[in-house]
Amino acid sequence: xxxxxxxxxxxxxxxxxxxxxxxxxxxxxxxxxxxxxxxxxxxxxxxxxxxxxxxxxxxxxxxxxxxxxxxxxxxxxxxxxxxxxxxxxxxxxxxxxxxxxxxxxxxxxxxxxxxxxxxxxxxxxxxxxxxxxxxxxxxxxxxxxxxxxxxxxxxxxxxxxxxxxxxxxxxxxxxxxxxxxxxxxxxxxxxxxxxxxxxxxxxxxxxxxxxxxxxxxxxxxxxxxxxxxxxxxxxxxxxxxxxxxxxxxxxxxxxxxxxxx
Length: 261
Description:
Blueprint: H1 3-38, H2 46-86, H3 123-138, E1 145-149, E2 155-160, E3 164-168, H4 178-191, H5 202-207, E4 219-224, H6 233-241, E5 245-248, E6 253-254
Parallel strand pairs: 3-4, 4-5
Antiparallel strand pairs: 1-2, 2-3, 5-6
Helix pairs in contact: 1-2, 2-4, 4-6
């Protein structure tokens, strides 16, 4: 690959990162608006419940986008590797992608000086994202294949070839809204569906050469922590409709009671 082609590839990846970052804006606004409502005088009302659901949905989306940014950084690193082999010198830095995700600057979040009052995500949000990432890493050892890059540029958490397609969520299902759970299931169904192929990248060729170009096959699993409360029937039914099995990190599978199956 020529230096010019490498440069074009870098620009394409940079455009992907920019597009993903753009998607943060409306969801950050949704989070800020929901927080304002919750912090108002609506405690205990139907509006309070709706606002809580909006916050959870926004947090879920921000988590997905954070993962996507990490994927983009990895792609840039791989591109830089190609570039450095064809053109000796330091590889482009991607450290700027590791900075905290910035919330949008708007009339509601700026003072008279025009500077953002709080440009970074709230500590609780960053803590939740970090906990989810750590939960994912803590369970890689249980599977032969992890962080699998697919042709649709999504990254599958774990995979047992021809047997299990695993997406992982650090959540207590009984404590989240039905809409949030449905979004998790839809993510699994849409991003990691059977038939996606493993992307041919330097990382995949190095880690899993026998899988490059192969289709992902097996049963879909949503892996969660050990649940502290019974998983609600509505959550079990939603997963069953999509054929997704719910399993905790200790191997327990959560299924519908026989009378509801």
